[in-house]
Amino acid sequence: MEKTLAILKPDCVRKNLIGDVIKQITEAGFRVRGMRMVWLTAETAGGFYEVHRERPFFQDLVAFMSSGPCVPIVLEKDNAVADFRALIGATDPADAAEGTVRKRFADSKGENIVHGSDSVENAAIEIGYFFAGRDLVALG
Ligand code: CMP
């Protein structure tokens, strides 16, 4: 079964939306295989978003992602990567489709509530950033 990494970002935690967002995710058919709550350092956030290091928004992204706790979640479903990106909507909530997580809950492109892996290959790398194999619980 395909896996993807979601991160409920610090704005999601600050706005007390963890439950609402997980409810939307699980109602869409995703199953939770692993979940943690972590407060990233700037160094760890920068490492996670290494591919964006040369982008103009990198410093703001790192500052935001290390501004409070976040909730990385391993999700499993057929076609999990693409289906999760469809569920959360476009990066900028202004462009996101009606009913998507970002349209419902996000304020801006920077503070956009949730991260989702962009490919199966990157999902495996990103899951490994937060979870060891033994952390992924078998589902009965
Ligand atoms: P995410 O899916 O976590 O991947 C990279 C993040 O960079 C993205 O969501 C946005 O929250 C953030 N970001 C901030 N500014 C921009 C921007 N101008 N363009 C794209 N992504 C941005």
In short:
The protein is of the alpha+beta class.
Topology:
Elements: E1 3-8, H1 10-14, H2 18-27, E2 31-35, H3 42-48, H4 58-65, E3 71-76, H5 80-88, H6 101-105, E4 114-116, H7 120-130
Antiparallel strand pairs: 1-3, 1-4, 2-3
Helix pairs in contact: 3-4
This protein binds adenosine-3',5'-cyclic-monophosphate.
Please explain how this structure is put together.
The chain is α+β, with helices and mostly antiparallel strands and 140 residues long. The chain has helices at residues 10-14, 18-27, 42-48, 58-65, 80-88, 101-105, 120-130; strands at 3-8, 31-35, 71-76, 114-116. A four-stranded antiparallel sheet has the order 2-3-1-4. The model has no long low-confidence stretch (mean pLDDT 97). The structure holds adenosine-3',5'-cyclic-monophosphate. Adenosine-3',5'-cyclic-monophosphate is lined by residues 52, 57, 61, 91, 109-110, 112, 115. Residues 52, 57, 61, 91, 109-110, 112, 115 line the site of adenosine-3',5'-cyclic-monophosphate.
